[in-house]
Amino acid sequence: MKIICIGRNYSEHAKELGNEIPESPVIFMKPDTAVLKGNDFYIPEFSNDVHYELEVVVKVSKGGKYIQKNSAHKHYDEIGLGIDFTARDLQNELKSKSLPWELAKGFDGSAVVGSFFKKENYDLHNLTFSLLKNKDIVQDGNTKDMIFTFDDIIAFVSQYFTLRVGDLIFTGTPKGVGKVEENDILEAFLDHEKVLDIRIL
């Protein structure tokens, strides 16, 4: 199982981190060991600035290579929410040296994955999702603001990586990312229904 992540897919988020708006999807990966087990996230000892990034996650249901955009919808049946935890201080250090981000993005427990739901129950082009930190809304997103749609992403990614059943695609985060502290509680909502509940330790 691969975890494929899309960076800078919401223009306002790209701007808040001082990044340019991409002309094609920005791709990075997380290993399968990044998936968080349980509902407790432990801040790693190598970072003092871990950020939450709430994202819609697509689960691949049909593998393929060189998938065309007009058939990309046939390759996933379910969506859910996930959190891409990022060691921002480490990421900034790596970026300043033009080095890959994996240490900041792919560490153990850095990929929160919630339950998955049938996509036909949602309007994928106008899907709301939000994150509360200690009961305050910190991220409030809508898929209509994505630069690259789910189908765009699948078509693009499959040019480079063969997709397999069970692969997960984190499709990008809206603005509002921020630091987590010990004892924070994160709650994620998909179309106003709570689907994730994470405690920071």
UniProtKB/TrEMBL annotation:
<dbReference type="GO" id="GO:0018773">
    <property type="term" value="F:acetylpyruvate hydrolase activity"/>
</dbReference>
<dbReference type="Pfam" id="PF01557">
    <property type="entry name" value="FAA_hydrolase"/>
</dbReference>
<dbReference type="InterPro" id="IPR011234">
    <property type="entry name" value="Fumarylacetoacetase-like_C"/>
</dbReference>
<feature type="domain" description="Fumarylacetoacetase-like C-terminal">
    <location>
        <begin position="2"/>
        <end position="187"/>
    </location>
</feature>
<dbReference type="InterPro" id="IPR036663">
    <property type="entry name" value="Fumarylacetoacetase_C_sf"/>
</dbReference>
<dbReference type="GO" id="GO:0046872">
    <property type="term" value="F:metal ion binding"/>
</dbReference>
<keyword id="KW-0479">Metal-binding</keyword>
<protein>
    <submittedName>
        <fullName>2-keto-4-pentenoate hydratase/2-oxohepta-3-ene-1,7-dioic acid hydratase in catechol pathway</fullName>
    </submittedName>
</protein>
